[in-house]
Amino acid sequence: MKERIISVDIFRGLTIALMILVNTPGTWEHVYPPLRHAEWHGYTPTDLVFPFFLFIVGTSIVFAYRNKEPNAATYRKISVRTLKLIGLGLFLGAFTISFPFFRDFSEIRFPGVLQRIGVVFFFAAILFLNANWKALLGICITILVGYWIWLGFVPFDGAAPTFDRAPNNWANYIDLQVFGSHMYKDDYDPEGLLSTLPSIASSLLGIFTGLVLISKRPRKEVIMLMLGIFMLVLGYLWDTAFPINKALWTSSFVLVTAGWANIVLALIYYLTDVKGLQFGSIFKYTGANAITVYFLSSFITKLFYSIEVADGMSLHGWLYQNIYVQSFLSGEMSSLLYGLTVTGFYLLLAWYMYRKKIFIKV
Fold it and tell me: Phi and psi at residue 111, in whole multiples of 5°?
């Protein structure tokens, strides 16, 4: 196995752990507010998780492809990995435990987390191989500004467009026209088609941080910290004209989330790579098999929700009701403890895989 960057693996693994935690509460009726997504505009800590992963995808691209040539063999590897990610995402959306084990076509959701990761990885990797940092910066700015202009200023059937959850929102409208009923909600999808454009910018911003990490510059943690603060300030200023919104993946959302990602990664980098502290090793193990752990957690959670046990209750519901629901615990605490247990299981699984030198590349 090649030598890995400790802080990058820890950051990636921590992000996957948070993904699992926020996706597997005991019950969605009792969830602490920080572990919920924002209703529309604004953001919560939970809304940072997915953009953090796309950010670190960009950072990882730098380490994986800095010595690669932009040739047919490299493009083939990138394409194969992209198709694997999209395929795994579609499999999760289509699978059911009932024979013949796949949903009716009309019920399948086409967009999804793994699908977006695949698409973002593809374009970010191709751009990294063929453009220098100045060109990448220009592309990133073009995406963010162009997306703002499209959603905020291009007339919609002769009327003004909106950033609200409404039929005259360009992102929602295009998703509905392209995907129809194959979406997360009836009127929009948080991993929709148009909002994938700015999510590529999230990964490009991660590439810039990766370039800092492989550079010969001293005090890299300070550079990342300053980049993070700059992006936060710029994102909050833009929020006044283009609201921070995860469902739309607005340009202000891209900057704010990348700002926080830089700050968090700078802290982890300082503790591990600069000071040499043994910090967050359990997340390092998870980061080494990030996609595998995420896929398994999503697949097994789906099984737990689908398998019926006593009185028609799902296996998930039975475990939660009989083990975690206690009179001395609030509903939110019971729900959180269930999620922490599930997350802990996958962290231990990742530790075991790391110890046995099992590294599954997707």
Answer: -75, 170
Over residues 155-169, the pLDDT tens digits come to 988 888 999 998 899
Q: In whole angstroms, what is the distance from residue 267 CA to residue 197 CA?
A: 29
Nearest-angstrom CA–CA distance, 119 and 86: 8
- Comparison of pLDDT for 312 and 357, the residue scoring more: 357
pLDDT, one tens digit per residue, over 177-192 is 988 888 788 888 999 9
- The C-alpha atoms of residue 192 and residue 249 are separated, in whole angstroms, by 9
- Asked if residue 283 lies in contact with residue 354, where contact means CB atoms within 8 angstroms, the answer is no
Per-residue exposure over 262-283, b if at least 16 CB sit within 10 Å of its own CB, e if not: bbbbbbbbbbbbeeeeebbebb
pLDDT at 93: 86
Residue 285 has pLDDT above 50, yes or no: yes
Other beta carbons within 10 angstroms of residue 49's beta carbon come to 22
Long-range contacts made by residues 187-193, C-beta under 8 angstroms, separation at least 24?
A: 188/247, 189/109, 189/111, 190/246, 190/247, 191/111, 191/112, 191/113, 191/115, 191/116, 192/111, 193/111
The answer for residues whose C-beta is within 8 angstroms of residue 161's C-beta and 6 or more apart is 151, 152, 153, 154, 155, 168, 169, 170
Is the bond preceding 100 in cis, omega lying within 30 degrees of 0?
yes
b/e burial code for range 145-170 (CB count within 10 A of at least 16 → b): eebbeebbeeeeeeeebebebeeebb
